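FORM 7B: Structural annotation worksheet

SECTION A. Query
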Amino acid sequence: MPGTTLVRTTLTGLRPLGVRGEPLHHAQEQIRGVVRRRLGERHHRVLAEPEPHALGGRIDWYSDAEGPVRALAELPPHERDAVRADIDRLMADIDKLGATLEAGSGEDARLAGRSLRMAATRPADEYLFMVGDQPVVVCWGYETGAAGAVLPAAFLPGVAGAPAAAAAPAVPPPFAPAPFMGMPAAAPAAAGAAAIAATPFPWLRMLLVWLLAFLLGLFLAWVLRQMSPMTIVVAGAAAPDPTAGLNRDMERARAEDARLRAILASLRDDLQKRRAQCVAPAAPPRAPAPPATAATKPDGMLRLPDKPTQDMSFLKGCWRGDSFRYTPRHNPGAHTYCFDEKGKGKLTFHWSSGSTCEAPATARYEGGKLLIVDADSTCSDGAQWTQDRLVCVQGADKVAQCSGETNIHLPEQGITRERATGFTVRLHRQ
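SECTION B. Predicted structure
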């Protein structure tokens, strides 16, 4: 059940604001829900909750804030100005949120933004209240100056004092100031009933007139039947309109659709902001590509000269070795050697895991064989790299056949182990 009843207003001669032909108070649940999620509880409570009557013609405005209810006109002048400034600030925040959603890319976001901006229009001072320390605005969502007449206290449930109601004018002025729900909710119901009974209702007179007309019609029908030989058939009551229930269901469905669209627009806006805050991880730096040189033959494999020589210009450029494993427990990898015309250069070993190991390398002929050696180093992942030693000889079609072993198995250096870690590769021009 809603909280404190502030005022009850009529719908006579109103010009409600709205979108898609629906007044704003039909979408109050989603409008106030977006304000609560995005701005907080104080902004949410500044907009009173409207509760239209089932028969139409009136709207009750509620507030769930706690504390005494005071109209703006009852406050001292200095406090009145402070409350008005606070309400203007809260409504400006709601208008700013509406402008942000209205500038979004989705249709639902723009619809919710327009609704919020129209709801942020502050009505006249007689529709401004203080409930405890919470400012509250009623009759929001209407054009300025057309917020609807505030009904007298006799129309509000729980207003105590039948004498006060008896002193009220017989016909309330159409724009009388809004009385407060000053009495607690537990006030006797008899006081409210007495207040209502003390105020005459125009429709009560109309009801009596129609009742007398109905009885007069029945009397005339009876007289005519007595005077006429023909039987007069009185048509029965018209069948109830079967579309009445459907219209109510359609209204509820439209309100639920508008509420879900506003929630969806708010969630999309939050998603876009969170996505904008995400920073993609930087791509790892790539190793510089070695300079490419033309291969001497279409297959691009390293070919050795017919005789050993100290001219290493045939090695100038970069050469990529076949992929292999040092041991079954090692990841695959491949050598890449880059030399100048003097046989000086460097080795870059690329592991399949993505890490690389670099070390200086030299090439020279020794004992009629091409010897390529590098040095101990540290890899990019912090692992230690031990020296490799390649011995290349001329094979078929002068293609270099290279066999190698790691630095941990070099018998001439006194480093031996039971099983050598060896490999066989061929070098291809890059």
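SECTION C. Observations
The chain has eight helices and 19 strands. The helical segments are 28-39, 41-46, 77-102, 107-119, 162-166, 189-198, 202-227, 243-277.

SECTION D. Sign-off
Analyst initials: ____
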